[in-house]
Specification:
With about 210 residues, the protein is α/β, with parallel strands linked by helices. It contains eight helices and five strands. Helix content is about 40%, strand content about 15%.
Amino acid sequence: MLARDAEYVVFDVETTGLSVLGGDRMLEIAAIKMRGGRIVDEFESFINPERDIPAEAQEVNQITIEMIRDAPTRDKVLPKMLDFIGGACVVGHNVKFDLNFLCYELALIGRKLRDETPALDTLKMAKRFLPQLTTHRLSYVAHFLGVPVDQTHRAAADVRLTGSVLTHFLNMSEDQRLGALKEVFKEFGVEKPRFKPVQPRQEMLF
């Protein structure tokens, strides 16, 4: 199968900070499903992190406590995200960061991504195909490729940028004879983090 014919779910998360093991949690998750370079479905939700949002995080992503106060918690949002992903390949720019949060918080509710779910990193693709750039930040890469940049550091805007960048890089892969799906994953795939799912607590019956 050619890589351009595969189904991709490009996703991005906004968080309270950088360390999931240090107690930071997701505030927002957004994803688009792509086939043949076209968006065929979308998913987006705020997530109540059940903790405070540091001022530094609010300055970056412009998500305030008031915006997520009545948002659903991870146990309501993430099962829907799993259904949205289905059997697709997940994609992100520096996708290890987003996967770390997604996989950890899935583990907290006793769930996980499918073992066979592949993950692709457009940051690795950017470094391979655009070595001349001094930075490979998403907005900079998009500008270089001629992709309009309206807003960054919000999940929905970032996934659309990443989806457009991915399409460019899949075309570049074919130009460099890396068009086969298995070759693209070999070059630009990443391993998913492994967190042991937490078993739901059993209610005591008296």
